[in-house]
Amino acid sequence: MKAIGLTRYLPISNPDSLVDIELDTPAPTGRDLLVKIEAIAVNPVDTKVRAPKDKIEETPRVLGWDAAGVVVAAGPEATLFKAGDPVYYAGDITRQGANSEFHLIDERIVGAKPKSLDFTCAAALPLTTITAWEALFDRLRVSAEGKDAGKSVLIIGGAGGVGSIGIQLAKRVAKLQVIATASRPESAKWAEELGADYIVNHFEDIPKQMKEIGFAQVDYVLIFNDTDKHFPAAAEVIKPQGGICTIVENAKPLPVELLKAKSAAFHWEFMFTRAMFKTPDMIEQHKLLSEVARLIDAGTIRTTLGRDLGKIDAANLREAHRLLEEGRTVGKIVLTGF
């Protein structure tokens, strides 16, 4: 089967950083599904894993943790899907990724593809949707039934992949008042179209801007960009007994003591946790993706596709990595078909 992989970890400007390769098509066992990949999306985790380092892989490593495709075979213990079912999922960082014609994936972290979306639009969703959903509803324990309607959330990084779906979940599912950060006219417009009630610029004084729009403090803060830079502002604007959740690793120790007087909570969200540790509730990601598919088909939320770079090959995938590393993407970057 065709695949895009690496054996050395190189700058994306090097044509050997991601290369076209041929691999044997795997066979499913246990609860695995063998999926024929129709479309993939690229995320910051791809660029972080691929980042230059002194390491050589004996066998090619395949990246890619966002996919949509069709089940072609199922392991003997699989019960949720069968051959012919269209699916979408984010995958497991401890296994080979989805940048290949066929891919093995545990059915417990797979969802049925939204019926109203094609594979390209569906592939834009899984990783960021799981991340935003778990951050908002699992970590911060916001009600997914709207019981916290009217409360407020600041979403730092509103126009990125996770922010794009996070705004929709916060506004259209949780019924919160949403303040999102964006720094350019096109990213601000995107965030507003997705449901943000207010926009503030994350390159300027966030607490000051919040006060100017009438939100000196908020009930929740979601940090989807640069935890080191934005944690002090998040700590300043969070309400007493509120909650902050970040998805971005820190480079330096965080001043968590800023939260003590407010008895504010601080959470991490890493969407690979359940698959990585084979937690007893792995199947929650299957349920989550199924619910999101229902919400999409009902018109409640929409795809966050920002750009389709065309067919799945090494050249286009390197371009996707380059664009992500620039840090100015709006929505998700997707590649379709081999």
From TrEMBL:
Enoyl reductase (ER) domain location: 13-335
InterPro entries per record: ADH-like_N, ADH_Zn_typ-1, ER, GroES-like_sf, NAD(P)-bd_dom_sf, Quin_OxRdtase/zeta-crystal_CS, Zinc-ADH_QOR/CCCR
Keyword Cytoplasm: yes
Subcellular location: Cytoplasm
Domain of life of the organism encoding this protein: Bacteria
Pfam families, per the entry: ADH_N (PF08240), ADH_zinc_N_2 (PF13602)
A single cellular component GO annotation: cytoplasm
GO MF, one example: RNA binding
Mitochondrion among keywords: no
Gene3D superfamilies given in the database record: Medium-chain alcohol dehydrogenases, catalytic domain, NAD(P)-binding Rossmann-like Domain
Subunit structure, as described in the record: Homotetramer.
UniProt record similarity statement: Belongs to the zinc-containing alcohol dehydrogenase family. Quinone oxidoreductase subfamily.
Protein name in the entry: Zinc-type alcohol dehydrogenase-like protein
Organism listed in the record: Caballeronia insecticola
